[in-house]
Amino acid sequence: MLSLMAQANKILRGGGKKRRAAGVPQPLAGGEGGVALEALTRFGLALHGAGLSTARVEAALERVAIARGLELEVLCTPTSILLGLGPVGGQEVRLRRVEPGELDLGAAVEIDGLLRRFEDPTAAWESALAELEVILARPPRWGRTATVLAQVLGSASAALLFGGGAREFLGTAGVGLAIALLAVLLGRSRNGGRLFEPAASLLAAATATGAVRLGAPIDAGIVTLASLIVLIPGYSLTVAISELATRHLVSGTARLAGVVGTLLGMGLGVGLGQALVAHLPVSAALAWWTLDPAWVREFALLVVLIVPPCFVVLFKARARDALAITAAAMLAFFAARYSSELLGPELAAFGGALVLGLGSNLDARLRNVPASVVQAPGLMLLVPGSIGFRSVEAFLGHDALSGIEVAFSAALSASAIVGGLLAANVALPPRRDL
After folding, report:
1. CB neighbour burial string for 219-238, b if at least 16 within 10 angstroms, e if fewer
2. 75: left (phi > 0), else alpha (psi -120 to 50), else beta?
3. Within 13 Å of residue 1, how many CA atoms lie on the same side as its CB?
4. Predicted TM-score of the model (pTM)
5. What is the pLDDT of residues 346-358, one digit of tens each?
């Protein structure tokens, strides 16, 4: 098993030592070593800040170093970057403490283009740093209004995918809007972001459960889960399993611990929210809109046309990539849906991830963009984040057996997704590391 994992890691990283032989390390003249190390460090920080996985950051920096004939060692984790330039025993080292960044696919595309141009050994490092500063200084790609709308619409659409109807759609939209306003409020505080997920979970659970007790004819569980779906770290869980599978053990373990911590915090918030409204008087169900229109259930599958563009905004991707992202996400979703008949609900994610991986790698080759641009948003329709959230809910309800069963199902789904992506990278390798 370890041998197979090592071979997969070598394939993903472009052939290991064979790739390193493409450039012959050369000594740097004068102060060029310090400038080159500073530039590579800044590139690493920028890629990390764009929310890319540590494996992709390491591979991108190594590719530049090899192309320019530099001897570089890189160690990247979710909270630190360590670079050593030069031969062993005489390295110049840079260590930087960093905070995990949110996905910014638009910035990743621009930084990748800059890295591609500066693989030319004649390009000046100072020019690279100047251009990088221009990229990092640009305002957010999507404004606050578009971001709030994407979060609300994405959450409400997820309610239909979870089996809800028009009432759950509208209820989730209302709770999603409240969570978006909470994000703006907490964003004004220096430490408010650290409490955002638990606070949002408390707000969602209290609002949905309280509304049901006061007579609203909605499914509180669906509304709570759907309104929090954009916050559940399902993508981070998949990245953590991927890093463990490709032998990035420190990074994968740290990221997995972060996912567990986030889920526990959100579970605590849900428990507190439900407890706060537990003593509200129970009212009879309101008479209005007791049944959903017949077309709502048939419309549910069409939300796969709505959700991917929402993640285009939330992941700060370029508008020109929206069509490719939506197409790949739809193919992955329906591939997973029809694979479930053959492989079961958990392993069906393998089929969806395989199709998504092949599609994103093909798109990367045709349009010369990083494969993650299409892959990351597409994964949001496959990731098992909602399953992991249900596991925490089961533990809070003192149903340990169900909690363990659901947690295992989430881990199996994440592993199936990683397996599908690995298989896609072997069948159709991307040309770029990002």
Report:
1. bbbbbbbbbbbbbbbbbbbb
2. beta
3. 2
4. 0.80
5. 677 888 889 999 9
SS (H, E, C) the chain: CHHHHHHHHHHHCCCCHHHHCCCCCCCCCCCHHHHHHHHHHHHHHHHHHCCCCHHHHHHHHHHHHHHCCCCEEEEEECCEEEEEECCCCCCEEEEEECCCCCCCHHHHHHHHHHHHHCCCCCCCHHHHHHHHHHHHCCCCCCCHHHHHHHHHHHHHHHHHHCCCCHHHHHHHHHHHHHHHHHHHHHHCCCCHHHHHHHHHHHHHHHHHHHHHHCCCCCCHHHHHHHHCCCCCCHHHHHHHHHHHHCCCHHHHHHHHHHHHHHHHHHHHHHHHHHHHCCCCCCCCCCCCCCCCCHHHHHHHHHHHHCHHHHHHHHCCCCHHHHHHHHHHHHHHHHHHHHHHHHHCCCCHHHHHHHHHHHHHHHHHHHHCCCCHHHHHHHHCCCCCHHHHHHHHHHHHCCCHHHHHHHHHHHHHHHHHHHHHHHHHHHHCCCCCCC
- What is the C-alpha to C-alpha distance for residues 72 and 86, in angstroms, rounded to an integer? 6
Beta bridge partners of 96: 81
Q: 200: which 2 tokens?
A: 């949002």
Tell me how far apart the alpha carbons of residues 56 and 111 are, in angstroms, rounded to a whole number: 13
Q: Tell me the C-alpha distance between 412 and 254, whole Å.
A: 19
Cα 10 → chain centroid? 23
351 near 420, Cβ under 8 Å?
A: yes
pLDDT on residue 384: 60
pLDDT at 27 over 60: no
Q: Are 366 and 321 in contact (CB under 8 A)?
A: no
Q: What does the block give as tokens for 393?
A: 């809910």
245-280 pLDDT, tens digit each: 888 888 889 888 888 888 888 888 888 988 888 887
- Dig out the tokens for 152 from the structure: 């609300």
Say how many C-beta atoms besides its own lie within 10 A of residue 25's C-beta. Answer: 16
